[in-house]
Design a protein that fits this description.
The chain contains four helices and twelve strands. It is of the alpha/beta class and 194 residues long. The radius of gyration is 16 Å and the shape is globular.
Length: 194
Amino acid sequence: MGVDKSELRRVVRARRAAVSRETRAERDHAILGHLGGIVTAGMVVCAYVPDDDEAGGPGLLTTLSRSGARVLLPVPPEVGPLGWAAYTGPADLVRGRFGIPVPSAAPGPPELIAGADLVVVPAVAVDRRGNRLGRGGGYYDRSLELAGPHTRLLALVDAENLVDAVPVERHDRPVDAVVTEDGLLDFGTWHSRE
């Protein structure tokens, strides 16, 4: 029997926490460099405000904004899929549900994700088939069902957290690709969504 999601989350998060701040910063810089080569001006990108322990680190939103993308951030509701609000800069973020920073503007409906060119999906780990292990709240699982047919799903992880297998449930949706410090790994659906 394989490892369950909670145990895998614990192992993977401990692995990243054991890496020095300097090494994490170097990896994050490389990840964001690769991401900056993917995102272009005019794209609509649904993203998130990363914690310090998430690959890509605190420079994620700056990288996306500098690319000229229109960035939408999630606003978690009491129940159901995420709402989305435009990111206008760090000064506009306020403390939201669960203490997660969100834009101060009222969120639009969950269906805004359908018009995104790219969704940068938070991930603790991703397996070699594109199955993602999230943080455990289920908000993205409910939201990704609404993504459009041409919307690409991308996760950012440290290369060591690209694992052989992630436990998968019926509602889980795989990502199209992952970016690590080594570059983009396409799971075979990245270009078919163009």
